[in-house]
TrEMBL record:
NCBIfam families: mazG, PRK09562.1. One of its GO terms (biological process) is dGTP catabolic process. Residues 36-109, 183-235 form the NTP pyrophosphohydrolase MazG-like domain. Gene3D superfamilies: MazG-like. One of its GO terms (molecular function) is nucleoside triphosphate diphosphatase activity. This is ATP diphosphatase. It holds the Pfam family MazG.
């Protein structure tokens, strides 16, 4: 790709691919881009995905456009490195997802008379995914196979539980996981050492995720809301105090917390 290629009459995606190929050129490319590998840029893919979600939650469409571009760059970057090693190309990636979408939507692309209710589509989607997992060249093709270990822990817990629940291994209502929370908290109180304490607290979080799931709530999203609420209240505490609250006594900080909560309520009532 010559220096003026970015101005040539390529489609946008072809232009991006040409730019990435130039950046990876061992002689004429960018030293940083050439030095990267799959592992070194993997964290950026996760980061960009989160920034896409942030833009959506902020309802900032201009920022969403930019963040989707950053996420697309990660796909092109990985595909370029793979093509250099003759593993696969960007076109292979696109072909694979096209085939998967057609395969997973038989009610759209194959059987026009199929049941199109949401429940049927969701169940059929999972059946097709299970069939795909069983055909993969892996030693693990069981119910829980293929759940990414790099997912946020609460999200992964929910996915594990949902897979297990499809086999019938689940509580029938919210009473079961609610009672289990008390049981796990008692085990936290009786922990014998730090390693045991970590394990028992993990069990509490896993069970709370189950409890949330039975209420139709995503524990990851619920915790995110609580994080934002605490952050907002803490900032209000600092604003009321006029700065750093570290020198204040705990009772004074608790008074500020109460004042911050009252401020939050008044702001909501004004809307």
């Amino acid at each position: 790709m010559d220096k003026d290629a970015s101005k040539q009459n390529f489609s946008s995606i072809d232009k991006l691919r040409q730019i990435m190929a130039r950046l990876r050129d061992p002689v004429h490319g960018c030293e940083w881009d050439v030095a990267q590998n799959f592992s070194s840029i993997a964290p950026f893919a996760v980061e960009e995905a989160y920034e896409v979600v942030d833009a959506i939650e902020q309802q900032d469409m201009e920022e969403l456009k930019n963040e989707l571009g950053d996420l697309l760059l990660q796909v092109v970057f990985h595909s370029q490195m793979a093509s250099e090693e003759n593993l696969f190309t960007f076109d292979d990636v696109a072909d694979a997802i096209c085939e998967k979408m057609i395969r997973r939507h038989p009610h759209v692309f194959k059987d026009n008379d199929a049941d199109t209710t949401s429940a049927y589509i969701a169940d059929n989607w999972e059946r097709i995914k299970a069939t795909e997992r069983s055909k993969k060249k892996s030693n693990d093709s069981g119910t829980l196979a293929g759940i990414a270990k790099s997912l946020p822990a609460l999200t992964r817990a929910r996915k594990i539980q949902e897979r297990a629940a499809r086999t019938g291994f689940d509580w029938s209502d919210t009473a079961g996981p609610r009672a289990k929370i008390d049981e796990e908290l008692a085990e936290v109180d009786n922990a014998t050492d730090r390693e045991n304490l970590i394990e028992e607290i993990g069990d509490v979080l896993f069970t709370v995720t189950t409890f949330a799931r039975h209420h139709g709530i995503d524990a990851e999203q619920a915790l995110k809301i609580s994080n934002e609420k605490f952050e907002s209240r803490f900032k209000t505490m600092e604003n009321i105090a006029g700065g750093d609250i570290s020198p204040l006594s705990l009772p004074e900080k608790e008074d500020l917390w109460i004042a911050a909560k009252k401020h939050e309520k008044s702001m909501k009532s004004d809307k």
